[in-house]
Amino acid sequence: WTSSLPAVAGIDTAGLASSTSIGSTSITAALGSVSASSLLIVNSPVPTALFVSPTNPAVFVGDQQQFTATLMYSNGGSQDVTSSVSWTSSNPTVATVGNAGLASGAAGGSTTVEAMWGASLLVGSTTLTVFPPTVFVAPATASTKLGGAQQFNATVTGSSNQNVSWTVDGVPNGNSTIGTISGAGLYTAPPMIGSHTIAAIAQSSSASQGTATVTVGSSGPISNTFFGMHLHAIADPVPASMQGSARIWDSGSAQWPSINTSSGVFTWNKLDALLAAYKLAGINDVLYTLWRVPKWASSNPTPALT
């Protein structure tokens, strides 16, 4: 066996030719005075498949995943073409992928990550699953007094970003009616009893949140500094302009209540008028302290103020 151009392809004694470069060579078999030849043409290897790895990985929101594209050839060889292919994500809201194959999880869900080899339009793909982080709030239930404080703590799992934003009944950081909560999770109760939902929302994924319930009760003393003003109902006139909250008290000479002798109903018409005056002046929350408490009374079924 002989090859006319061994630089293109050589051949061994068993007739096995091995190509080394692109071109053509004449392969001759000779036995004594008898011989025969054939032309061997060596072409470039042809891309046959494109593979994307790893296969079907999963990450959390905010994390990244590096993909690799490998081009397979007809001669059994392979080539890393990660930075040469075109990368796309079928659902960019879940994850995006850059030109170098680096994907970033944006929201919970799944997306198909695809690589395309432009010269031959070969396509390889895999599925990327993105898990949203989980948020836990502790304590899960709590109670505090009017104007009291309660510390809540949030833990975010599945994300390196532990930052959260806080809401009270869906209101960012709350307000004076439902209570306020600081960026550090410190809840300050309003001057009204009730139950409220505290939520911690992961900054890495707004769809991930943990909740807790806080009950604001009337038990326990209220700090003297809770009220912005302290007024004597008889001696102090109603200020022309007020805001926030006030504590008002009376003395023995005040006669706010009266009794309807025909119906036997104890009424607070005079006190209602006083409270209305304070409300008109801008006071949102009033604590009224009676000098003496009647033995019995019934409230107006539809009071203007409570």
Walk me through what this model shows.
By secondary structure, the protein is mainly beta. It folds into four domains: 41 residues, no CATH class; 85 residues, Sandwich (Immunoglobulin-like); 84 residues, Sandwich (Immunoglobulin-like); 63 residues, no CATH class. It has a five-stranded mixed beta sheet with strand order 17-26-25-20-21, with no helix packed on it. Strands 7-15-14-11 form a four-stranded mixed beta sheet, with no helix packed on it. Strand 2 and strand 3 form a beta hairpin. The C terminus is likely disordered.
What brief labels describe this structure?
306 residues; mainly beta; Immunoglobulin-like; 4 domains; five-stranded mixed β-sheet; four-stranded mixed β-sheet; 31 strands; rod-shaped; disordered C terminus
Q: What is the general shape?
A: rod-shaped
State the CATH architecture of the largest domain: Sandwich
Tally the helices: what do you get? 1
Write the CATH fold name of the largest domain.
Immunoglobulin-like
Distance between the termini: 111 Å
| Low-pLDDT residue intervals, each spanning 5 or more residues | 294-306
Class derived from helix and strand content:
mainly beta
Q: Using the coordinates above, name the CATH class of the largest domain.
A: Mainly Beta
Q: Name the helicity range.
A: under 10%
Short description:
This protein has 306 residues and is mostly beta strands. The protein is built from 1 helix and 31 strands. Helices cover 4% and strands 50% of the residues.
Topology, element by element:
Blueprint: E1 2-3, E2 9-11, E3 17-19, E4 23-31, E5 34-42, E6 47-53, E7 58-60, E8 64-66, E9 68-73, E10 78-80, E11 86-89, E12 95-97, E13 102-105, E14 109-117, E15 122-131, E16 134-138, E17 141-145, E18 149-151, E19 153-157, E20 164-168, E21 171-172, E22 174-175, E23 179-181, E24 186-188, E25 194-202, E26 209-217, E27 229-232, E28 244-249, E29 258-260, E30 265-267, H1 269-280, E31 283-289
